[in-house]
Amino acid sequence: MQLSPSVTIARCESGLEYLQVNSPLCQARIFLQGAQLTEYTPANQKPLIWVSSEEDYQEGKSIRGGIPICWPWFGVHQNPEWPIHGVARVSLWRAEEVKEEQDAIRISLSLPMAQVDKTYWPHNTKLEVEYVLSDKQLEVRLTNTNLGDSPVQLTQALHSYLPTPDITQTSVDGLQGAQYIEFGEGPFEQQEVVHFGRETDMVYSDAKPLQRIRTPDGTIEVARENSRSCVLWNPWVDKSQRLSNFADDEYHKMLCLEAANVLDDKVELAAQQSHTLATIIRWG
Ligand SMILES: O=P(O)(O)OC[C@H]1O[C@H](O)[C@H](O)[C@@H](O)[C@@H]1O
């Protein structure tokens, strides 16, 4: 079904629905499950988003790649039985609006709260995401609004999977000076540009709002708004073997740099207040 001149809605083999953008500005794909973007390629440039070759797009299962939306908690909940990274990434979102402007396509989706089990999220809030897709950059804006009368707290992340032709020749600049915890230890201070040679799972607090990832294919810039924390992840050899929908050697070809609100940077919403977490990703 055609939604606008450049945006159609279609279904993949396993049955999941997605919005497909085929525009002179870019190519992109956003699944309704999780409101998860799995493709963004600006015109005449290389893809900026990575998805596993083993992904089979099953209902109720998180897609390995793209930008999973982790909400209303990031990582393992204090009740370890609850799903890691919350429930938004496996819930069915609703497409709200597609707007084509001269230099960008705006797509917004919302998560109907009826989709969310009240055990996990008993609060009266609204959750929306807007994708702004141009020929230069991808912008993702995740807005929480507290519709209730009492304050609400949450943690969250835009868990961006980014491509590299070779992780051993990839580095991340712009985290120097930030504190991080890793595998439950720390805080440590990031002294240098980050290189990859082992499992990496760093949760940074108070990181600068822009990082540059240098890969043999070029520099990827990842900026954040209303986010002091971010997560840098590569599963390396052993964890790759344990991950769902992930080939054993795929850690060579990806990394995640995730715009987050975690640790001391959790979102605290007073009654009727809104907060927008954003990440902006582009070739530098
Ligand atoms: O396998 P998932 O539930 O998608 O989680 C994938 C990864 O997400 C984040 O980056 C966490 O920091 C990692 O510890 C976790 O392994």
Automatic annotation (TrEMBL):
GO terms for biological process: carbohydrate metabolic process. Keywords: Isomerase. SUPFAM superfamilies: Galactose mutarotase-like. CDD domains: D-hex-6-P-epi_like. This is Putative glucose-6-phosphate 1-epimerase. Its EC number is 5.1.3.15. It catalyses: alpha-D-glucose 6-phosphate = beta-D-glucose 6-phosphate. Belongs to the glucose-6-phosphate 1-epimerase family. The active site is at residues 159, 258. The lineage of its organism: Bacteria, Pseudomonadati, Pseudomonadota, Gammaproteobacteria, Alteromonadales. One of its GO terms (molecular function) is carbohydrate binding. It comes from the Bacteria.
